[in-house]
Write a structure and sequence with these properties.
Layout: E1 2-4, E2 8-9, H1 21-31, E3 39-43, E4 58-62, H2 64-72, E5 77-82, H3 88-101, H4 107-125, H5 129-136, H6 140-155, H7 165-189, E6 204-206, H8 209-214, E7 221-226, H9 256-270, E8 271-281, H10 286-296, E9 299-300, E10 305-308, E11 326-334, E12 347-349, H11 366-376, E13 382-385, H12 392-399, E14 403-408, H13 411-451
Parallel strand pairs: 2-4, 3-5, 6-14, 7-8, 7-13, 10-12, 13-14
Antiparallel strand pairs: 1-5, 3-4, 8-11, 9-11, 10-11
Helix pairs in contact: 1-2, 3-4, 4-6, 5-6, 7-13, 9-10, 11-12, 12-13
Length: 452
């Protein structure tokens, strides 16, 4: 049948919340030839929509894009299938199926639609999540993840601002991880924490780095490897679309550059003579950070180290900007100590920590930090990191036989560092035991051979 477009009411609570104008225009071109699929309507439910104008007769169930495209062609009528005796739940199921099978929804609308479809099909047919997964043509695990993310967005709307579903899932994982760590932090502060985590409490300081460092003695440490915060919304509108990190705590208590300006002189003070320091920094702040370091007394290599990440890099405007695929780090000297590993390139090639394995939003890979530590310190010397974050600097120090001191102001991440280091120590101990056993086996084999 054909009905007049002006008689169709569009429910305000329809599933699809956004429609691409370009996609509607493309559809309008194809509809100039023929309309293969009619829209689906029911008689207008005036109990549900009592304020709908009197000239409206039908209520749209499915086919919103086709309706827009037909209206764009200025056609007064459209092919439609009029269904009767449909419950509101059945109407919603038809709309969900239609939207999931037609032009791709935004990722936010898609996961919301799938989560709702799971609920509806359970009510209507008793379907399990596996049955619904088969119905929509995807794996049970993928549908379960989408359903979980949709529910999480209801509780934490910040997740919906992610640029895609993968980024949102990674944010959710970090937030869930943080909840677990917050519980561990509360246990530690109450004295009920795991004794194994307390083994490194004297080396991982909880509190504001600047206040902690001011109380430390001068000229005692052998190296600094640190990654100060770059600041909130540093690249908003420039290189990054959607903040890939969840908001975990406010790092705007004081200006980030003011913090950096105050901690750099303290860094110089606590280092022994003839030592090295590594400061990661935002490349747009090159001149200011370079000046702060040199004013404090450091001899700074003006050509920074570049940690280069594989891939095309992050970019918000690919039509006008190159992707951001590296991070910069100043190599600084106090005195004149030689590099222990020489002949290396200032381009550091290390894979970043996969998003689904990160402990902290801006975690550096242990391999990268190991390279810096092994280049500038000997076993037994002490490395300092003012901004502990995930604890990767400390793990790199443990793996290389160095001592360390870390600061971390967030109680949850402080607990996370303690947990990580307890596991890292166990891993190193197990590795050492395996090596010792291998040495004994080799010695026994030699002894047996000599006797033979």
């Amino acid at each position: 049948m054909e009905i007049e477009i002006k008689e169709i009411f569009i429910p305000p609570d329809r599933q699809r919340t956004t429609v691409k104008e370009s996609a509607v225009a493309e559809l309008a071109v194809s509809l100039q030839v023929r309309q293969l699929h009619p829209i689906v309507v029911v008689e207008l439910d005036r109990v549900r929509f009592p304020d709908a104008p009197s000239h409206l007769k039908y209520q749209l169930v499915a086919g919103y894009r086709r309706l827009l495209a037909t209206a764009l062609l200025k056609r007064p009528v459209i092919k439609a299938e009029l269904l009767s005796n449909l419950s509101r739940i059945e109407q919603e199921e038809i709309e969900l199926d239609e939207n999931l099978q037609r032009e791709q929804l935004s990722w936010q609308d898609e996961i919301k639609a799938k989560a709702r479809l799971v609920e509806l099909r359970k009510q209507l047919y008793g379907d399990s999540i596996r049955d619904v997964a088969t119905h929509v043509g995807e794996s049970r695990g993928e549908l379960w993840e989408d359903q979980r993310l949709a529910k999480a967005i209801e509780a934490n709307p910040e997740l919906a601002n992610s640029k895609n579903k993968t980024q949102a899932q990674n944010k959710l994982r970090l937030l869930q991880r943080r909840e677990v760590l917050s519980a561990k932090a509360a246990e530690l502060q109450s004295g009920r924490g795991d004794p194994a985590l307390l083994a490194y409490e004297s080396k991982v300081k909880l509190g504001d780095a600047l206040q902690l460092v001011k109380a430390w003695p001068s000229s005692v440490f052998n190296c600094i490897v640190t990654d100060p915060p770059y600041g909130i919304n540093l690249d908003a509108g420039e290189t990054k679309k959607g903040n890939p990190h969840p908001t975990v705590y406010d790092d705007a208590t004081y200006d980030i550059m003011d913090l950096t300006a105050q901690i750099i002189p303290e860094a110089y003070r606590i280092l022994q003579d003839n030592t090295h320091a590594y400061f990661f920094f935002d490349i747009k702040q090159y001149a200011r950070i370079f000046r702060l370091l040199t004013d404090a007394g450091f001899t700074v290599d003006p050509i920074p180290l570049l940690w280069v990440k594989p891939g095309s890099g992050q970019v918000n405007h690919p039509d006008s900007r190159w992707g951001s695929g590296y991070e910069a780090c100043f190599f600084c000297r106090k005195g004149n100590r030689a590099l222990l590993k020489q002949g290396q390139s200032n381009v550091l090639l290390h894979d970043p920590v996969p998003s689904n394995r990160k402990i902290h939003p801006v975690e550096k890979p242990v391999s990268l930090l190991r390279q810096l530590i092994e280049t500038s310190t000997a076993p037994g010397e002490t490395v300092v990191d003012f901004f502990g974050g995930s604890g990767s600097t400390a793990e790199a120090a443990i793996q290389t036989g160095r001592n360390f001191i870390l600061c971390e102001k967030d109680p949850a991440y402080h607990a996370g560092i303690l947990e990580r280091l307890s596991k890292a120590t166990a891993s190193v101990t197990a590795s050492t035991d395996d090596e010792e056993e291998a040495d004994w086996e080799e010695a026994r084999a030699r002894n047996k051979k000599s006797k033979g």
